[in-house]
Design a protein that fits this description.
heterodimer, A: 338 residues, alpha+beta, 29% helix, B: alpha/beta, five-stranded mixed β-sheet, 32% helix, globular
């Protein structure tokens, strides 16, 4: 087995960063998320490969929160349009957990399949190598296994790092992974080591049949009840590794401007605000219900699996204590709609 | 703090005799350290109510959802939360006679959100979560300022530090230093609007940040749009923030929002004061920036 010794991690990152923008989990001041190794500041940042996960998922590496699409300007009678081809340096996401890799698989579903390929997404995705960090110790609110994710073996990963005493087994899965490994081959060591066993999950849900049941539960009183503590902020959607909704907006001044897209959240009233003034999801309950129906019913109907990877972030960070586990359990147990 | 039994008794009485249609309180979540907002509408549901050491949420904000209704509402408020009720009454958001306010004397609460994070595995430093919530350490108002029924013994004020000390330090910074200070703080904002949603003073029917014609503040998570968002949010808090600390507590990227709010509190106090928002309800009274007076100071313009 190829093994990356703990003491060589920074060397590996430095090497990889010569060819690519490498995103790694870090504690940066007061926040945790995936940040570029090029911006790593020893005195301020802290590498976090050893943590269960970071609050801000790495989805922004491929789907940035704000992204310029094109700029325009008027010169006399001419209108000039420049497509903002952001310089696409190859990217590596290193240390990503299986739940978040599944999140990227969902983004792939949305932006690359069903007859439409999003050029901005594709350009980034094609140049991104995923180095997953296998997870052997599920956390208090983790339930990825119940959502069909294998915490120790992510499908879309190019390489899987497996934590062992003193380092990581370097498990190459794809050609992309081979290419990246070539750059650091000399920093890896051949060694026989024993892998940790996967610890049992503390939380489980049974999603089977939930999408089907939800079809008849649009008017169920549970939506009112569950949405009461929800303050309709966007924390859950913005920290979620799968939420992909965006808006396209423009900034213009005088004869020039640019168009950009930015994350949007179904929890915001403005999200469904129509030009004529009508809002089909005026009340918190309606927005809340849509969020969960999208995750647990609509997405499954379109792509065959739910838009939830069981990472548990929304459960941990919700100020109102809303729990998707509780919602799945309630639907599962509901007698209506069966 | 544990008034679960007392609150359940009051709630059962109020619902039973039809005095109110709903009781806004708390219930337990999935973990012993998790308490979440809960609305009981029937006597059967009263048994779910808790009012314990994790009852941190300022529930007064949830009254906004019912401002257009006719329901009679009982609501449980701690000292800080009760100032939020005054805030809503002053802004004519809800009629006093629709409310039955159950005040609880609060000796400080713990933060369930903090505890959830501590136990999540997402945090490396496992400090035992026994202490009071950050916002309670500097509490100025442990006792309700408005109530119909009071539970618990009056509590002493805990906040004795100068809450403007840090503001004075920042005021002393050079313009460049101050810019860097705020740039570092606000560049990490993800614009989830949790600070706005948690705020009882944010009661506009259509928030300026949701306006699209015109769009006053851009939606990019750039430093300029983030600055605009926080400047506008902060200035709307002037004379209206009741210091419940919920905005700062719910911020997922730990922006010290109370620092910004306190600057405004300090300024309003200096220019128009002495003034503390929401300390007592006198019908017809308005916060300083809700009225115009000929002799209003304008040196800062």
């Amino acid at each position: 087995m190829k093994v990356l010794k703990m003491s060589k991690i920074e060397q590996v990152l430095d090497r990889l960063a010569q060819q690519a923008d490498v995103y790694v989990p870090m504690l940066r001041g007061q926040q945790t998320g995936f940040f570029s190794w090029n911006t790593y500041d020893e005195g301020y940042d802290d590498l976090m490969f050893d943590i269960l996960n970071v609050y801000q998922s790495p989805k922004h590496v491929i789907l940035p929160q704000t992204e310029k699409m094109y700029s325009f300007s008027q010169e006399g009678q001419e209108i000039k349009i420049d497509v903002e081809a952001e310089e696409m340096t190859p990217k590596i996401i290193m240390g990503i957990r299986s739940c978040d890799v599944r999140g990227i698989e969902h983004l792939d579903d949305v932006f690359l399949t069903k007859g439409y390929v999003d050029q901005f997404y594709k350009a980034r995705r094609d140049k991104t190598t995923i180095i997953a960090n296998a997870c052997y110790n599920p956390g208090t609110n983790c339930f990825c296994e119940s959502m069909g994710v294998n915490p120790t073996d992510s499908e879309a990963a190019d390489i899987i790092m497996r934590e062992v005493n003193g380092g990581y087994v370097w498990d190459v899965k794809t050609e992309k992974g081979e290419a990246v490994t070539k750059q650091i081959e000399d920093l890896l060591e051949e060694q026989e080591v024993e892998l940790f066993p996967l610890k049992p999950f503390l939380r489980k849900v049974n999603y089977e049949g939930v999408a089907e049941k939800l079809k008849d539960m649009f008017e169920d009183p549970m939506w009112e009840k569950f949405s009461e503590p929800c303050q309709t902020c966007g924390i859950c959607t913005y920290l979620c590794p799968t939420c992909y909704c965006f808006d396209i907006q423009v900034k213009a001044w005088g004869d020039e401007g640019y168009r950009f897209r930015c994350w949007d959240s179904c929890m915001y009233r403005e999200y469904t605000q129509m030009a004529g003034g009508h809002n089909p999801r005026e009340a918190a309950k309606e927005r809340f219900r849509n969020r969960f129906l999208h995750k647990l019913q609509f997405f499954t109907e379109r792509y065959g699996r739910p838009l939830c990877t069981g990472c548990g972030r929304c459960i941990v960070v919700c100020p109102g204590g809303v729990s998707i586990i509780k919602i799945i359990d309630t639907v599962k147990e509901a007698e209506t709609g069966a | 703090m544990n008034y679960t039994q007392e609150i359940r008794e009051i709630a059962a009485r109020l619902l039973e005799n039809g005095q109110v249609d709903m009781v806004i309180a708390w219930e337990k979540g999935d973990h012993e350290y998790q308490t979440i907002p809960f609305i009981a509408r029937t006597v059967d549901e009263v048994g779910r109510i808790v009012c314990d050491e994790y009852s941190i949420h300022n529930l007064s904000n949830s009254l906004l959802r019912y401002r257009d209704g006719k329901e009679k509402i009982a609501i449980v408020v701690k000292g800080c939360d009760s100032r939020g009720i005054v805030r809503l009454l002053e802004d004519n958001q809800i009629k006093r006679d629709r409310l039955y306010i159950i005040g609880v004397a609060c000796d400080g609460v713990k933060d369930p959100l903090r505890a959830m994070k501590q136990h999540s595995g997402f945090e490396r430093i496992q400090t035992p979560e026994d202490g009071l919530a950050a916002k309670c350490l500097d509490c100025r108002q442990p006792n309700p300022v408005i109530y119909d029924e009071m539970v618990g013994e009056e509590q002493p004020i805990r906040g004795e530090t100068d809450r403007f000390a840090r503001i004075a330090e920042i005021e002393q910074m050079s313009a460049d230093e101050r810019y860097r200070f705020f740039e570092d703080m606000l560049s990490r904002c993800i614009r989830c609007y949790a600070c706005r949603q948690a705020c009882v003073a944010c009661n506009c029917r259509t928030c300026i940040f949701d306006e699209t014609r015109p769009q006053w503040v851009g939606r990019e998570t750039s430093i300029s749009d983030n600055f605009m968002y926080h400047l506008v949010r902060a200035s709307h808090m002037a004379g209206r923030c009741v210091e419940c600390g919920e905005c700062e507590r719910v911020c997922p990227v730990n922006i010290p929002l109370m620092l910004i709010n306190r600057k405004l509190i300090k300024d309003v106090n200096e220019f128009f004061g002495p003034y503390e928002a929401g300390m007592e309800y006198v019908e017809g009274n308005k916060p300083p920036l809700s009225v115009y007076k000929e002799n209003d100071p304008d040196d800062f313009l």
